[in-house]
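Progress note, sequence design subtask.
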């Protein structure tokens, strides 16, 4: 059992974390793009509703 635990600890410590490989920035970028897209859609929808109200 100790052998398996030691192997898992050695393997996990040698793996790079997400921030070191740049994946972190990709995820943040995708989330930012989605948020900006949703905000732009809501603003355009608001303008359309205001136009219909007049």
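Output:
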């Amino acid at each position: 059992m100790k052998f398996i635990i030691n192997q898992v600890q050695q393997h996990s410590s040698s793996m790079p974390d997400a921030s070191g490989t740049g994946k972190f920035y990709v995820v943040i970028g995708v989330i930012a793009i989605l948020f900006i897209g949703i905000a732009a859609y809501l603003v355009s929808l608001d303008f359309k509703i205001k136009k219909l109200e007049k």
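The chain has a mean pLDDT of 82. Work on this subtask will continue into the next period as scheduled.
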